[in-house]
Protein backbone atom coordinates (compact mmCIF):
# COMPACT_ATOMS: atom_id res chain seq x y z
CA UNK A 1 0.00 0.00 0.00
CA UNK A 2 1.72 3.18 -1.21
CA UNK A 3 -0.94 5.88 -0.94
CA UNK A 4 -0.06 7.72 2.32
CA UNK A 5 -3.63 8.90 2.97
CA UNK A 6 -5.13 5.43 2.60
CA UNK A 7 -2.28 3.90 4.62
CA UNK A 8 -2.81 6.43 7.41
CA UNK A 9 -6.52 5.57 7.57
CA UNK A 10 -5.74 1.88 8.08
CA UNK A 11 -2.84 2.52 10.50
CA UNK A 12 -4.61 5.07 12.70
CA UNK A 13 -8.35 5.42 12.11
CA UNK A 14 -9.15 1.76 11.55
CA UNK A 15 -6.67 0.60 14.20
CA UNK A 16 -8.43 2.69 16.87
CA UNK A 17 -11.86 1.25 16.10
CA UNK A 18 -13.43 -1.20 18.47
CA UNK A 19 -14.27 -4.76 17.47
CA UNK A 20 -17.92 -3.84 17.02
CA UNK A 21 -17.12 -0.95 14.65
CA UNK A 22 -14.72 -3.12 12.67
CA UNK A 23 -17.39 -5.81 12.46
CA UNK A 24 -19.78 -3.28 10.93
CA UNK A 25 -17.43 -1.56 8.48
CA UNK A 26 -15.75 -4.66 7.00
CA UNK A 27 -19.02 -6.10 5.58
CA UNK A 28 -19.69 -2.64 4.11
CA UNK A 29 -16.42 -2.74 2.18
CA UNK A 30 -16.96 -6.37 1.24
CA UNK A 31 -20.38 -5.55 -0.22
CA UNK A 32 -18.91 -2.77 -2.36
CA UNK A 33 -16.04 -4.80 -3.80
CA UNK A 34 -17.36 -8.33 -3.52
CA UNK A 35 -18.81 -8.31 -7.01
CA UNK A 36 -15.40 -7.54 -8.52
CA UNK A 37 -13.43 -9.92 -6.30
CA UNK A 38 -15.71 -12.92 -6.81
CA UNK A 39 -16.04 -12.43 -10.58
CA UNK A 40 -12.95 -14.09 -12.06
CA UNK A 41 -12.89 -12.04 -15.25
CA UNK A 42 -13.27 -8.68 -13.50
CA UNK A 43 -10.78 -9.66 -10.81
CA UNK A 44 -8.18 -10.49 -13.46
CA UNK A 45 -8.77 -7.17 -15.26
CA UNK A 46 -8.79 -4.66 -12.42
CA UNK A 47 -6.80 -6.71 -9.90
CA UNK A 48 -3.45 -6.34 -11.66
CA UNK A 49 -0.92 -3.98 -10.09
CA UNK A 50 0.15 -2.47 -13.43
CA UNK A 51 -1.58 -2.04 -16.77
CA UNK A 52 0.14 -3.59 -19.80
CA UNK A 53 -0.48 -0.43 -21.84
CA UNK A 54 -0.32 3.31 -21.19
CA UNK A 55 -3.20 5.42 -22.55
CA UNK A 56 -0.99 8.50 -22.75
CA UNK A 57 1.55 6.55 -24.81
CA UNK A 58 -1.26 5.35 -27.09
CA UNK A 59 -2.40 8.92 -27.58
CA UNK A 60 1.03 10.45 -28.18
CA UNK A 61 2.31 7.77 -30.55
CA UNK A 62 -0.82 7.50 -32.72
CA UNK A 63 -1.61 3.94 -31.71
CA UNK A 64 -4.98 2.20 -31.94
CA UNK A 65 -6.74 0.94 -28.82
CA UNK A 66 -9.80 -1.28 -29.27
CA UNK A 67 -11.91 -2.11 -26.20
CA UNK A 68 -14.65 -4.73 -26.47
CA UNK A 69 -17.32 -3.90 -23.87
CA UNK A 70 -20.00 -6.25 -25.18
CA UNK A 71 -22.69 -6.75 -22.55
CA UNK A 72 -23.20 -10.29 -23.82
CA UNK A 73 -19.62 -11.11 -22.83
CA UNK A 74 -19.07 -8.91 -19.77
CA UNK A 75 -22.55 -8.39 -18.38
CA UNK A 76 -24.39 -5.09 -18.00
CA UNK A 77 -22.74 -3.78 -14.82
CA UNK A 78 -19.20 -4.87 -15.74
CA UNK A 79 -19.47 -3.37 -19.22
CA UNK A 80 -20.61 -0.02 -17.82
CA UNK A 81 -17.94 0.02 -15.12
CA UNK A 82 -15.04 -0.73 -17.47
CA UNK A 83 -16.38 1.78 -19.98
CA UNK A 84 -16.53 4.55 -17.38
CA UNK A 85 -13.02 3.71 -16.18
CA UNK A 86 -11.59 3.89 -19.70
CA UNK A 87 -13.36 7.15 -20.55
CA UNK A 88 -11.92 8.67 -17.38
CA UNK A 89 -8.40 7.37 -18.14
CA UNK A 90 -8.53 8.78 -21.68
CA UNK A 91 -9.70 12.13 -20.33
CA UNK A 92 -6.83 12.23 -17.82
CA UNK A 93 -4.34 11.26 -20.53
CA UNK A 94 -5.60 14.15 -22.66
CA UNK A 95 -5.22 16.58 -19.75
CA UNK A 96 -1.61 15.44 -19.33
CA UNK A 97 -0.92 17.06 -22.68
CA UNK A 98 -0.86 20.36 -20.81
CA UNK A 99 2.86 19.69 -20.36
CA UNK A 100 3.35 18.82 -24.05
CA UNK A 101 4.13 21.47 -26.66
CA UNK A 102 1.19 22.25 -28.93
CA UNK A 103 3.17 21.18 -31.98
CA UNK A 104 3.63 17.70 -30.48
CA UNK A 105 -0.06 17.14 -29.69
CA UNK A 106 -1.28 14.88 -32.47
CA UNK A 107 -4.98 14.35 -33.10
CA UNK A 108 -6.54 11.49 -31.17
CA UNK A 109 -10.15 10.37 -31.52
CA UNK A 110 -12.29 8.54 -28.99
CA UNK A 111 -15.12 6.52 -30.56
CA UNK A 112 -17.91 5.35 -28.22
CA UNK A 113 -20.66 3.06 -29.47
CA UNK A 114 -23.88 2.81 -27.41
CA UNK A 115 -22.78 6.06 -25.85
CA UNK A 116 -25.84 6.30 -23.57
CA UNK A 117 -24.28 3.65 -21.30
CA UNK A 118 -21.31 5.86 -20.50
CA UNK A 119 -22.85 9.29 -19.95
CA UNK A 120 -20.79 10.96 -17.21
CA UNK A 121 -19.31 14.31 -16.22
CA UNK A 122 -16.07 13.18 -17.89
CA UNK A 123 -17.77 13.34 -21.29
CA UNK A 124 -18.91 16.90 -20.63
CA UNK A 125 -15.37 17.82 -19.67
CA UNK A 126 -13.99 16.24 -22.86
CA UNK A 127 -16.49 18.20 -24.95
CA UNK A 128 -15.69 21.56 -23.37
CA UNK A 129 -12.00 21.31 -22.48
CA UNK A 130 -10.20 18.45 -24.24
CA UNK A 131 -10.40 19.97 -27.72
CA UNK A 132 -7.36 22.15 -27.06
CA UNK A 133 -5.47 18.96 -26.24
CA UNK A 134 -6.44 17.53 -29.67
CA UNK A 135 -8.82 14.92 -28.31
CA UNK A 136 -11.86 14.42 -30.55
CA UNK A 137 -15.05 12.61 -29.63
CA UNK A 138 -17.27 10.46 -31.86
CA UNK A 139 -20.36 9.12 -30.13
CA UNK A 140 -23.09 6.80 -31.43
CA UNK A 141 -26.54 6.42 -29.91
CA UNK A 142 -30.18 6.19 -31.02
CA UNK A 143 -31.96 9.42 -30.03
CA UNK A 144 -31.34 12.70 -28.20
CA UNK A 145 -33.26 11.69 -25.08
CA UNK A 146 -30.38 9.33 -24.23
CA UNK A 147 -28.12 12.34 -23.68
CA UNK A 148 -30.00 13.13 -20.48
CA UNK A 149 -29.33 11.08 -17.39
CA UNK A 150 -30.78 11.49 -13.90
CA UNK A 151 -30.08 9.58 -10.71
CA UNK A 152 -32.78 9.59 -8.05
CA UNK A 153 -30.35 8.27 -5.42
CA UNK A 154 -27.80 11.08 -5.77
CA UNK A 155 -30.41 13.60 -6.99
CA UNK A 156 -28.11 14.43 -9.89
CA UNK A 157 -29.21 15.44 -13.36
CA UNK A 158 -26.80 15.42 -16.32
CA UNK A 159 -27.84 16.87 -19.66
CA UNK A 160 -25.20 16.58 -22.39
CA UNK A 161 -27.45 17.69 -25.23
CA UNK A 162 -26.62 21.38 -24.83
CA UNK A 163 -22.92 20.65 -24.31
CA UNK A 164 -22.73 18.58 -27.49
CA UNK A 165 -24.63 20.94 -29.77
CA UNK A 166 -22.86 23.94 -28.27
CA UNK A 167 -19.40 22.53 -29.04
CA UNK A 168 -20.05 21.22 -32.56
CA UNK A 169 -19.60 23.70 -35.40
CA UNK A 170 -20.00 21.38 -38.40
CA UNK A 171 -23.25 19.42 -38.38
CA UNK A 172 -24.48 16.60 -40.60
CA UNK A 173 -27.87 14.99 -40.22
CA UNK A 174 -29.28 11.78 -41.66
CA UNK A 175 -32.94 10.80 -41.28
CA UNK A 176 -34.13 11.20 -37.69
CA UNK A 177 -37.34 10.73 -35.72
CA UNK A 178 -39.99 13.46 -35.31
CA UNK A 179 -38.96 14.51 -31.78
CA UNK A 180 -35.27 14.78 -32.66
CA UNK A 181 -36.08 16.54 -35.94
CA UNK A 182 -37.99 19.24 -34.06
CA UNK A 183 -34.90 20.02 -31.99
CA UNK A 184 -32.31 19.71 -34.79
CA UNK A 185 -34.26 21.54 -37.52
CA UNK A 186 -33.32 25.01 -36.24
CA UNK A 187 -29.67 24.28 -37.10
CA UNK A 188 -30.61 23.73 -40.76
CA UNK A 189 -33.32 26.38 -41.10
CA UNK A 190 -34.52 28.02 -43.23
CA UNK A 191 -33.35 25.63 -45.98
CA UNK A 192 -34.66 22.46 -44.32
CA UNK A 193 -37.60 21.97 -41.95
CA UNK A 194 -38.21 19.25 -39.38
CA UNK A 195 -40.37 17.40 -41.92
CA UNK A 196 -37.47 17.42 -44.38
CA UNK A 197 -35.22 15.79 -41.77
CA UNK A 198 -37.82 13.09 -41.05
CA UNK A 199 -38.20 12.26 -44.75
CA UNK A 200 -34.56 12.18 -45.91
CA UNK A 201 -33.91 9.28 -48.29
CA UNK A 202 -31.66 6.36 -47.37
CA UNK A 203 -27.92 7.12 -47.45
CA UNK A 204 -28.54 10.83 -47.96
CA UNK A 205 -27.98 13.67 -45.52
CA UNK A 206 -28.05 17.43 -44.97
CA UNK A 207 -25.08 19.42 -43.72
CA UNK A 208 -24.08 22.81 -42.42
CA UNK A 209 -20.45 23.87 -42.21
CA UNK A 210 -18.57 26.49 -40.25
CA UNK A 211 -16.25 28.28 -42.69
CA UNK A 212 -13.83 30.89 -41.33
CA UNK A 213 -15.96 31.16 -38.21
CA UNK A 214 -19.18 31.72 -40.14
CA UNK A 215 -22.03 29.22 -40.55
CA UNK A 216 -22.69 28.32 -44.18
CA UNK A 217 -26.09 27.74 -45.71
CA UNK A 218 -27.36 24.19 -45.20
CA UNK A 219 -27.16 21.85 -48.18
CA UNK A 220 -27.90 18.22 -49.04
CA UNK A 221 -25.31 15.60 -49.98
CA UNK A 222 -24.81 11.88 -50.67
CA UNK A 223 -22.01 10.64 -48.36
CA UNK A 224 -19.84 7.66 -49.22
CA UNK A 225 -21.36 4.34 -48.19
CA UNK A 226 -19.06 2.56 -45.68
CA UNK A 227 -20.97 -0.71 -46.08
CA UNK A 228 -19.53 -1.18 -49.58
CA UNK A 229 -16.00 -1.43 -48.16
CA UNK A 230 -14.76 -4.85 -47.06
CA UNK A 231 -11.94 -5.45 -44.62
CA UNK A 232 -9.36 -8.22 -44.57
CA UNK A 233 -10.31 -10.85 -41.93
CA UNK A 234 -6.93 -12.57 -42.16
CA UNK A 235 -5.08 -9.32 -41.54
CA UNK A 236 -7.40 -8.53 -38.60
CA UNK A 237 -6.60 -11.89 -36.98
CA UNK A 238 -2.87 -11.27 -37.45
CA UNK A 239 -3.10 -7.86 -35.76
CA UNK A 240 -5.05 -9.33 -32.84
CA UNK A 241 -2.51 -12.10 -32.34
CA UNK A 242 0.40 -9.66 -32.53
CA UNK A 243 -1.28 -7.41 -29.96
CA UNK A 244 -1.96 -10.38 -27.68
CA UNK A 245 1.69 -11.46 -27.82
CA UNK A 246 2.98 -7.94 -27.11
CA UNK A 247 0.57 -6.74 -24.42
CA UNK A 248 -1.19 -9.84 -23.11
CA UNK A 249 -0.27 -11.87 -20.05
CA UNK A 250 -0.98 -15.48 -19.24
CA UNK A 251 -4.29 -15.75 -17.38
CA UNK A 252 -3.05 -18.51 -15.08
CA UNK A 253 -0.07 -16.39 -14.01
CA UNK A 254 -2.32 -13.39 -13.30
CA UNK A 255 -4.73 -15.49 -11.21
CA UNK A 256 -1.89 -16.95 -9.13
CA UNK A 257 -0.41 -13.50 -8.59
CA UNK A 258 -3.71 -12.03 -7.38
CA UNK A 259 -4.52 -14.99 -5.14
CA UNK A 260 -1.06 -14.78 -3.58
CA UNK A 261 -1.44 -11.05 -2.99
CA UNK A 262 -4.80 -11.35 -1.23
CA UNK A 263 -3.54 -14.27 0.83
CA UNK A 264 -6.20 -16.73 -0.30
Automatic annotation (TrEMBL):
Identification of the protein by name: TraD/TraG TraM recognition site domain-containing protein
Gene3D superfamilies, sorted: P-loop containing nucleotide triphosphate hydrolases
Matching PANTHER family: SLR6007 PROTEIN, UNCHARACTERIZED PROTEIN YJGR-RELATED
Domain of life (superkingdom): Bacteria
Organism: uncultured bacterium (gcode 4)
A Pfam short name: T4SS-DNA_transf
GO CC annotation: membrane
InterPro entries attached to this UniProt entry: P-loop_NTPase, T4SS_component, TraG/VirD4
Signal peptide segment: none
Amino acid sequence: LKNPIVKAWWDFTFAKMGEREKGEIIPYFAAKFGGFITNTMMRNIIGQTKSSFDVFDVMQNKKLLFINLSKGTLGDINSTLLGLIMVSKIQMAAMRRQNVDKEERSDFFLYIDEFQNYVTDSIESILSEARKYRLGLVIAHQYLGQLQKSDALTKSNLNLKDAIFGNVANKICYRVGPEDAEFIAKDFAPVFSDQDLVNIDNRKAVMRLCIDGQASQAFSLIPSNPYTEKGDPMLARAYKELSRLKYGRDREFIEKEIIFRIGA
